[in-house]
Amino acid sequence: MTAAVLDVLTELVRRRTVASGEGVPAALCADLLHDEGFEVSTPGWEEGREQLVARTGSGSAPLTVTGHLDTVPADPAQWTVDPWSAERDGDRVTGRGTSDMKAGVAASVVAAVGHASRPHHCCGLQLVLTAGEETGCTGARRLRRSSLAPGGPLLVAEPTANRLVPGHKGAHWMRLTAAGRAAHGSAPQLGDNAVVRLARAAVALHDHDSWPSHAAFGPVTGNVGLLRGGVQPNVVPDFAELLLDVRTVPGVDGDTVRSVVAGLSGDGVRVEDHVVLPAVDTDTRDPFVGLVREALAAAGEDGEVQPPARYFTDASVLAWLLSPSEGGAPVPTVVLGPGEPDQCHVVDEWCSASRSEAAVEIYRHLFDRWCGGS
């Protein structure tokens, strides 16, 4: 089993899944799970962007494990190795998506295969591998409750270096637009420069340091992720667009965030929601948190509960989609995966081979305890 997780990780990394192509690794994982008796389906919304839902066991409210198959882009010219080579150097495996989050996907699939192969009464295990998480949980938001078995808790295999994280910030992405008036570049006074208006807004948003804060989650943060407008140097641009990424915390609603952004942006800027994902906050006294701590202890790992993560995950969608009652409260959720949190989206991204192997053991102990086999 230990060697298998690195084999699966290598196969996943070698599949380029930058906002497309997730169907290939979904099929690879589906084959592994189907061979051990999992019932599998691959819902998607366009060719090549299939996702995976796989279930085993008799429980009506299974434990769900989730991970995403897509990655952010990588520029090979900036890397010291081929980003899609999964190059091994000692304990490090380097490649785009190693930490975020194909190591977590590989470990959860290998652990699930091992769990299903051991004779026992299975209380239910469900794997949900998504497409398009990096673009705002695109795939998870396209899943339907009818395609899932709701009711049980949720484990997210995102990168935590195998530490127990009981929640994460939300995301409020906004699209800001400004309309101006075109003119010849030699007479800018005759036009109304939309790019300049949004550039001023971008600086104001970047410099703002009075966002609300939360005792456990820390402050709300804002990032100007994209600014574009104009057609060529000798034309005053009559349109500009800015995409803003605000990371939210419990107790701060969308109206508050939107009002702050509008106030900082000034007159003539339109602010619209682009993607809104709620924060995930699980009570550390929840029995599922206790079960994960037991699994960590059994695997010889640190079971101390960590602060909430600064990133978002598909739990912002799935924790509510898996609620026992439609439209009800989110299910208990824990984020725990072998990837390195500080390696997300960086050049020469790497993960630890030994942590990937350890994650298989942690998940194995968790699955066994879920089924009453501890």
Describe the structure.
Helix 7 packs across helix 9. This protein has a six-stranded mixed sheet with strand order 1-2-6-3-7-16, with helices on both faces. The relative contact order is 0.20. By secondary structure, the protein is of the alpha+beta class. A hairpin with a 3-residue loop joins strand 10 and strand 11. The chain is globular and about 80 Å long. 30% of the residues lie in helices and 22% in strands. The model has no long low-confidence stretch (mean pLDDT 96). It contains nine helices and 17 strands.
How do the strands and helices of this protein lay out in sequence?
Elements: H1 2-13, H2 23-34, E1 39-41, E2 52-56, E3 63-68, E4 87-89, E5 92-94, H3 98-117, E6 125-130, H4 138-142, E7 154-156, E8 167-168, E9 170-179, H5 194-207, E10 213-214, E11 218-219, E12 221-229, E13 239-248, H6 254-265, E14 269-277, E15 280-281, H7 287-298, H8 315-321, E16 333-335, E17 350-352, H9 353-370
Parallel strand pairs: 3-6, 3-7, 7-16
Antiparallel strand pairs: 1-2, 2-6, 4-5, 5-17, 8-15, 9-13, 9-14, 10-11, 12-13
Helix pairs in contact: 1-3, 1-9, 3-9, 7-9
Rg, Å, rounded: 22 Å
Report, as a whole number of angstroms, the end-to-end distance. 20 Å
Structural class: alpha+beta
Silhouette: globular
Number of alpha- plus pi-helical segments: 9
Report on the biggest sheet. Answer: 6 strands, mixed
Mean of the pLDDT scores? Answer: 96
Helical fraction equals 25-40%
Task: List the secondary-structure elements in sequence, H or E.
Answer: HHEEEEEHEHEEEHEEEEHEEHHEEH
Strand order of the largest sheet: 1-2-6-3-7-16
- Unreliable spans: none
